[in-house]
Sequence to fold (266 residues):
Amino acid sequence: MPDVTVTTLQELKQKGEKITMLTAYDATFARAACQAGVEVLLVGDSLGMVVQGQDSTLPVTIQEMAYHTGCVKRGNQGALIVTDLSFMSYATLEQTLVNSALVMQAGAHMVKLEGGASLAPAVQRLAENGVPVCMHMGLTPQSVNVLGGYKVQGRGDAQARQLRADAIALEQAGAALLLLECVPSELAAEISQAVRIPVIGIGAGAGTDGQVLVVHDMLGLSLTGRTPKFVKNFMAGQTSIQAAFEAYVTAVKDGSFPAAEHGFSA
Ligand code: KIV
Ligand code: NA
Fold:
C-alpha cells in the first residue's frame, strides 16, 4: 500500500487542502515528483503524445500502459499511482476487469476511465473486485473523434446538467475520484461541492479539490509548439526540474495556480 491512499485524498478534501497530481511515465520523474510532495502520480495515456509522438491517445495499448505503470512503480516513493485504461480497453465489462487487473498487477493503485453514468456498472464491479476508480469527465480525449476536437465541455444548461448528474451517479456507483478536464470553472466548483469524493481538475478552475497537469507541459516542453490555455510553465524562473515540481506543489497548495486566466467561462 502506498503512503497516500484513497483515505488520504478524502481527508485532504475534508480539510480543504488541495491535492497535487502530475503525470509520470518513468521511474526517475516519478521519484522527483514524489520528492517534491506530489500526492498522486497519473500514468496517463497522454504518453501516446508526449512519449510516443502520436497525434492522439488512441494508438496507446493496455500493454504499454502496464509497462509504464511498472516503470513508475519502481520510482515511486509513497504516492498513489493512477493508471489510465487505454482506448477501447474497457468497451465491455469483461475487458474492463481483465485490463484493470493488468495495470493493477503492474503497480497501479487505481484505474482511470473516461466517460459518464453509462460506466456506473463498471465502476461498481471494479470496486467490488478491489479496484478503486477515477472517472475522467468533461473533455475526454479518447472520444476526440466523437467530440469533433479538443473543446471545452459542459457549456450551456443541458451539458452542465448532464455533467452534474453523471458526477453524482458515478459517486453513487462507488467511484473514488473524479477528474474534470476543460469544463467551465464555475461548474467544476459546483460539482466539487456536490460530491463527497475528491474532484481533480485540469482546465477546470481553482474550485476543484486538486489539480493535475501533464508533466511535459508544466516543464515548458512541447512537441507541437501549441500549449493549452490551462497550462503554466513552472520551469520559468527555476534552475532545476526538482524546483519546478516544488513550485507546482506550492502553487496548487496555496491556491495561486490555477489563476483565472487558466480557466474557461460558461
Ligand atoms: O492522460 C493524461 O495525462 C490525462 C490527464 C490530462 C488528466 O488523462
Ligand atoms: Na488520459
